[in-house]
Every structure is written in C-alpha cells, then in structure tokens.
Target: 6-carboxy-5,6,7,8-tetrahydropterin synthase
Amino acid sequence: MFVLKIVTDFGAAHSLRNYPGDCARLHGHNWGVEMSIEAQELDVNGIAIDFREIKKQTKAVVKRLDHQYLNEITPFDKLNPTAENIAKYMYQEVAKLINNQDVRVCEVIIWETPRASVTYSEPR
Model:
C-alpha cells in the first residue's frame, strides 16, 4: 500500500454553537490540512497519483473555506464548525474529486493549532 500526503492550510473564523466556554465566541485559526491518498498499484511510470493533482483538488476544497466565517457557509451554517466536522467535510469533498478505482482518500488531519489536531478516515 502506498500513502501519499500533501500539506496545505487556510485561515478561517468560527464560533462553536452550544459550547460552554471561550470557543463559543467568534475566533479564528490558521488551520493546517494533511490530505493522505492511498493506492495499491503504480502506473507504468511508477506513480500512484501526481502530487500536483492531490494539491489541486485539496486546494479547490480549501478555497471554499479560506478567509470565511465558517458558521455562514454551507454546510457549517447548520453543522457545528468543529475541527472534527471540518475534517469529515474535507475528506468527503476531496474524495468526490479524487477517488477512483486506483486511488482513494484514506485520511485527513486537520490542525486547529500547532498542538491540537483531529484525524478523520472512513472504512474501506
């Protein structure tokens, strides 16, 4: 199994609904994103998927979130914009763009701060 990973980031604000603490107030983060793609086979050139393609598709999803107040955009206008929900959203949205019979998103790590992250994956 090959696992390819790219790292990117975005800046966005949020406030956590029904949270009993400071994070209920509007605040922002420089979110880190680690997108991992898995493949069992390589093409004739020895490549599973071009890193540029992973970056392109991940950045297309990140662009929807960058410099936004997450609570005001879909799906976070209804769904609480927690790091957990952002990780699941990133996973599922990038999977729509990348997954095929040869490669699939296997894991996303979202960093809310340099010392706090969440990892999301789905069963194969």
